[in-house]
């Protein structure tokens, strides 16, 4: 199927790119949106994420990322039991009881997310109402919000999207009279956030806010003069909610690699009237360092063929980076969901004959992968060892959401994530 | 509704996956949303399996719910059969599909597949992983072995006795090596293993279970139900003794020899375990009366309690299980050691009890390993749930005489060695053998910081409080004098919490307002050790 893609700004209004897109339905191998709690609960340091779901949800959370290293995690599961289903127990009363017990145990919590799951969606447990009821009970100490991370509605990183969308109505409001501000949307590692803050400050943009904020009492204010820029490519709902408050999106590529980071910073700089000469001066050292770092690793990747299974929605920006800055050939670039508008700048930078796939039929995709026998396969944890055993070299995609990869000073680290499995395979003699 | 952070067991369909993944030529079609596919990584990452589990998920989405999810199931099942050509299919629902009531079992009977499709009813909101594994294995055995011919009456005389080994699955705690150890042990008795199941068997092998003379049940949590059915159907007796530890292995040999009518003598005489001598050798004296807390699945917990008591000379101060289905066995065992059994799947309760009991060693699961790390207590893992570390590269069974050797090494390892313990007692302000020192073979001084950072309030290490002035008395709580507090610091950390607690209790009982050095030693004399 051919889909015209229209880049929204820099590449010119008339230019469209036609991609061959494989669209498939069938068995998947992806996480559900609950999984994003694993980084969100570290990012928002006074929030607790309470999944209202089944034992499967609880088991997923503890299995997905070996998160048991956290002594007392700020997430948990309210397990729906048989008596809740049979109507013997009023599920709402039960939930109130569980929340009261939890908040008693954890007086440090200021924001509680009730996170919907597949079972809670199917039995139509109204968590929105529950959240507003519980908020009334526990305010001002604790604010209670809700969003869905269910696997019937969200894939992996989309859990962050629905979480941030639930935060938007809570943001302090600004009016026409307030000065323009820049809002960066999407979880970034703290160190990356600090780097970006410094770069913007050097350009003279001092009012930079981040969503999610590190603490629930530092939520960024939003209004008609807010210019927001996405730091992650999976934030469809959150973007829509922000626009509902009058904020304007700055179209940009995503800040992966030198080109992506420069394009991303430039979109903000242009919107805030930063002098191009100043922009070049501020970004030059980072660009130079990133190129120097990349030059060693790119050699390892150059000409190697890569196949990306759908997972985090980071696949298209990653493919753009790996192709243009590391010289890799793109065999197939899978994504669970293709947001054409948010990815317009990215798609415009991909080779026209790139094979994209949206959705998944796992077995057919594995057939294509085996047939192509790429040099590197990017895939989830369930597939990596079996593919290695078949002789392929793999990179687990989950590492890409747990590692600081955005910005100039992480560009070489990002490339290295793909080079290391290749170097390792070349090194081993057993 | 129940609040949980960590769970000991997954949902019952994960138990079914453990059975299916352990087997060959079997495929499981699971009506489930996409997120449930996380379960694949349990097998490919934790167990490092080199193949995907034989499971196809229908991965329905919200938009399918208004339409025909049943059709999606039918289509997926047919496609999975065509692609994988298994000898049999398992079909069932995960927790979400259970709610939409598509009845995969009923649907599968209408697909016209040329192989058996075995429906699984695994209630996700009341049952858990081990039950799911047990039920799945039972349904497989019932469906596939039921039609077998009875054994020919005269055939048995012309061959060695033979048995099935029942219970091992994928993701089991040391199942891989236990099978090897027990197969060798049975061979030394002149007994052949006919089929090992579920691990390593095909549906065709399951159909042959009735041809064996008897069954060896290694893991009752998984195989007992099936073994009972086989006993009723084929008059196959099954074993009750779990061969963990030297004593139990000897009893197991006797039990098996009795059933198979072979001479146990040579196998008993050739018993190759170093545990008895290692445990009797004088350097093991320091193990005497070590306070040990035990938690795990029922089988491993009960076995560990016996080994700890009879073969290590430890004192069991706590015993518990998360296996509610086998709570009775654990309650019985707890009576032997005069402890209150802890039957719970709430790890916070387990943590509270470990903190309360102040054991010197914990034998538990990966969950207890974390609890112990936080509380600064040594821990060895004896049971599932498992972690990647529980699949060691080396041969490391738990069962049989080889397994007893492994137990000796593994359980002694976390402890401070005997002589070192004395050095700590003697030279309390020595730069190396000071009170905060960790066992030297475990390396480093990291233990102290970790405990300070992570220990819950009620067992905060003294490092936090010593520099401060004695705390003001609260409602008649006795206060530590500076001297006594300093003396307490000289007691090695692994018994200090208990000393503090006992002394405070003693002072309170005696109505003392201040704890002096004398109070500390009076309390020591009062409580003994």
Automatic annotation (TrEMBL), chain A:
Stored SUPFAM superfamilies: Helical backbone' metal receptor
Substrates-to-products reaction catalysed: chlorophyllide a + oxidized 2[4Fe-4S]-[ferredoxin] + 2 ADP + 2 phosphate = protochlorophyllide a + reduced 2[4Fe-4S]-[ferredoxin] + 2 ATP + 2 H2O
Gene3D superfamilies in alphabetical order: Nitrogenase molybdenum iron protein domain
GO BP, sorted A to Z: light-independent bacteriochlorophyll biosynthetic process; photosynthesis, dark reaction
Cofactor binding note: Binds 1 [4Fe-4S] cluster per heterodimer. The cluster is bound at the heterodimer interface by residues from both subunits.
GO molecular-function term, one example from the UniProt record: oxidoreductase activity, acting on the CH-CH group of donors, iron-sulfur protein as acceptor
EC class of the enzyme, as a word: oxidoreductase
Assigned EC number: 1.3.7.7
Keywords assigned: 4Fe-4S, ATP-binding, Bacteriochlorophyll biosynthesis, Chlorophyll biosynthesis, Iron, Iron-sulfur, Metal-binding, Nucleotide-binding, Oxidoreductase, Photosynthesis
Task performed by this protein: Component of the dark-operative protochlorophyllide reductase (DPOR) that uses Mg-ATP and reduced ferredoxin to reduce ring D of protochlorophyllide (Pchlide) to form chlorophyllide a (Chlide). This reaction is light-independent. The NB-protein (BchN-BchB) is the catalytic component of the complex.
Family affiliation: Belongs to the BchN/ChlN family.
NCBIfam families attached to this UniProt entry: DPOR_bchN, PRK02842.1
Assembly with partners or alone: Protochlorophyllide reductase is composed of three subunits; BchL, BchN and BchB. Forms a heterotetramer of two BchB and two BchN subunits.
HAMAP family xref list: ChlN_BchN (MF_00352)
Name of protein: Light-independent protochlorophyllide reductase subunit N
Lineage: Bacteria, Pseudomonadati, Pseudomonadota, Gammaproteobacteria, Chromatiales
Automatic annotation (TrEMBL), chain B:
PANTHER family xref list: LIGHT-INDEPENDENT PROTOCHLOROPHYLLIDE REDUCTASE SUBUNIT B
GO biological process terms, semicolon-separated: light-independent bacteriochlorophyll biosynthetic process; photosynthesis, dark reaction
Biochemical pathway: Porphyrin-containing compound metabolism; bacteriochlorophyll biosynthesis (light-independent)
E.C. code: 1.3.7.7
Domain Light-independent protochlorophyllide reductase subunit B-like C-terminal: 480-524
Cofactor note: Binds 1 [4Fe-4S] cluster per heterodimer. The cluster is bound at the heterodimer interface by residues from both subunits.
Protein's name according to its UniProt entry: Light-independent protochlorophyllide reductase subunit B
Domain Nitrogenase/oxidoreductase component residues, every copy: 12-415
A matching Pfam family: Oxidored_nitro
Amino acids binding substrate: 418-419
């Amino acid at each position: 199927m051919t889909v015209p893609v229209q880049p929204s700004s820099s590449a010119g209004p008339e230019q469209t790119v036609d991609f061959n897109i494989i669209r498939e339905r069938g068995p998947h191998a992806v996480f559900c949106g609950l999984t994003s709690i694993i980084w969100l609960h570290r990012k928002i340091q006074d929030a607790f994420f309470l999944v209202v779901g089944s034992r499967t949800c609880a088991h997923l959370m503890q299995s997905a990322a070996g998160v048991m290293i956290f002594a007392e995690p700020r997430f948990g599961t309210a397990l729906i039991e048989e008596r809740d289903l049979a109507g013997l127990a009023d599920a709402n009363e039960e939930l109130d009881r569980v929340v009261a017990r939890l908040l008693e145990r954890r007086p440090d919590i200021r924001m509680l997310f009730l996170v919907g799951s597949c079972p809670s969606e199917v039995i139509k447990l109204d968590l929105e109402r529950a959240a507003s009821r519980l908020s009334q009970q526990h305010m001002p100490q604790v604010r209670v919000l809700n969003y869905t991370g269910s696997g019937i509605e969200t894939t992996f990183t989309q859990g962050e999207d629905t979480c941030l969308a639930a935060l938007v109505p809570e943001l302090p409001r600004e009016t026409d009279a307030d000065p323009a501000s820049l809002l960066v949307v999407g979880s970034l590692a703290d160190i990356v956030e600090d780097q970006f803050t410094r770069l913007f400050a050097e350009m003279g943009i001092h009012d930079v806010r981040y969503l999610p904020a590190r603490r629930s009492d530092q939520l960024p204010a939003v209004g008609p003069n807010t210019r927001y820029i996405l730091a992650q490519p999976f934030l469809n709902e959150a973007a829509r909610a922000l626009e509902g408050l009058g904020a304007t999106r700055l179209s940009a590529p995503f800040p992966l690699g030198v080109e992506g980071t420069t394009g991303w910073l430039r979109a903000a700089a242009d919107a805030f009237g930063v002098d191009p000469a100043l922009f070049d001066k501020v970004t030059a050292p980072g660009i130079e360092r990133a190129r120097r770092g990349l030059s060693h690793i790119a050699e390892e990747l150059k000409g190697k063929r890569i196949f990306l299974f759908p997972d985090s929605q980071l696949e298209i920006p990653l493919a753009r980076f790996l192709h243009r800055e590391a010289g890799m050939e793109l065999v197939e670039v899978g994504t669970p969901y293709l947001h054409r508008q948010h990815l317009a700048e990215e798609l415009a930078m991909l080779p026209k004959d790139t094979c994209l796939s949206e959705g998944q039929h796992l077995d057919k995709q594995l057939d294509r992968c085996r047939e192509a026998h790429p040099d590197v396969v990017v895939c989830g944890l369930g597939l990596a060892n079996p593919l290695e055993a078949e002789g392929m070299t793999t990179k687990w995609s989950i590492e890409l959401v747990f590692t600081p990869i955005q910005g100039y000073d992480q560009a070489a680290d990002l490339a290295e994530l793909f080079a290391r499995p290749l170097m390792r395979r070349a090194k081993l003699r057993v | 509704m129940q609040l949980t952070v960590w769970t000991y067991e997954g949902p019952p369909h994960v138990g079914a996956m453990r059975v299916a993944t352990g087997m060959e030529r079997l495929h499981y079609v699971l009506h489930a949303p996409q997120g449930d596919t996380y379960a694949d990584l349990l097998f490919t990452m934790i167990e490092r399996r080199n193949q995907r589990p034989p499971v196809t998920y229908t991965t329905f989405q919200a938009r399918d719910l208004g339409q025909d999810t049943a059709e999606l199931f039918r289509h997926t099942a047919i496609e999975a059969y065509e692609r994988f050509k298994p000898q049999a299919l398992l079909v069932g629902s995960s927790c979400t599909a259970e709610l939409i009531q598509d009845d995969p079992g009923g649907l599968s009977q209408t697909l016209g597949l040329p192989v058996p499709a075995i429906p699984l009813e695994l209630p996700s909101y009341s049952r858990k992983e081990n039950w799911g594994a047990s039920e799945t294995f039972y349904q497989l055995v019932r469906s596939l072995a039921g039609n077998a011919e009875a054994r020919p009456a005269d055939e048995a005389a012309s061959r060695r006795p033979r048995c099935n080994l029942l219970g091992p699955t994928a993701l089991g705690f040391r199942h891989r090596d236990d099978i090897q150890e027990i197969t060798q042990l049975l061979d030394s008795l002149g007994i052949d293993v006919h089929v090992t199941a579920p691990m390593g068997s095909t549906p065709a092998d399951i159909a042959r279970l009735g041809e064996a003379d008897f069954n060896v049940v290694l893991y009752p949590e998984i195989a007992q139900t099936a073994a009972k059915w086989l006993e009723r159907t084929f008059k196959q007796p099954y074993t009750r003794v779990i061969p963990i530890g030297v004593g139990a292995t000897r009893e197991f040999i006797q039990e098996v020899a009795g059933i198979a009518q072979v001479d146990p003598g040579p196998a008993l005489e050739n018993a190759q375990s170093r545990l008895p001598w290692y445990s009797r050798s004088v350097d093991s004296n320091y193990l005497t009366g070590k306070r040990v807390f035990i938690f795990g699945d029922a089988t491993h917990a009960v076995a560990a309690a016996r080994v700890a008591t009879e073969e290590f000379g430890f004192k069991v101060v706590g015993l518990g299980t998360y296996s509610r289905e086998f709570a009775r066995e654990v309650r019985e065992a707890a009576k032997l050691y005069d402890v209150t059994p802890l039957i719970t799947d709430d790890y916070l309760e387990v943590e509270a009890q470990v903190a309360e009991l102040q054991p010197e060693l914990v034998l538990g699961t990966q969950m207890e390993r974390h609890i112990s790390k936080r509380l600064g207590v040594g821990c060895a893992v004896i049971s599932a749930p498992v972690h990647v570390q529980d699949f060691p590269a080396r041969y490391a069974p738990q069962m049989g005489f080889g397994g007893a050797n492994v137990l000796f090494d593994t359980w002694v390892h976390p402890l401070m060695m005997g002589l070192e313990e004395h050095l700590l007692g003697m030279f309390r302000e020595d730069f190396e053998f000071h009170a905060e020192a960790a066992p030297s073979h475990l390396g480093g001084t990291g233990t102290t910081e970790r405990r300070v950072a992570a220990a819950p309030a009620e067992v905060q290490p003294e490092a936090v409080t010593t520099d401060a002035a004695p705390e003001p008395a609260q409602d008649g709580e006795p206060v530590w004098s500076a001297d006594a507090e300093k003396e307490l610091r000289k007691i090695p950390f692994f018994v200090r919490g208990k000393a503090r607690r006992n002394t405070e209790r003693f002072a309170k009982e005696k109505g003392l307002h201040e704890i002096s050095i004398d109070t500390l030693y009076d309390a020591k004399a009062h409580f003994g050790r």
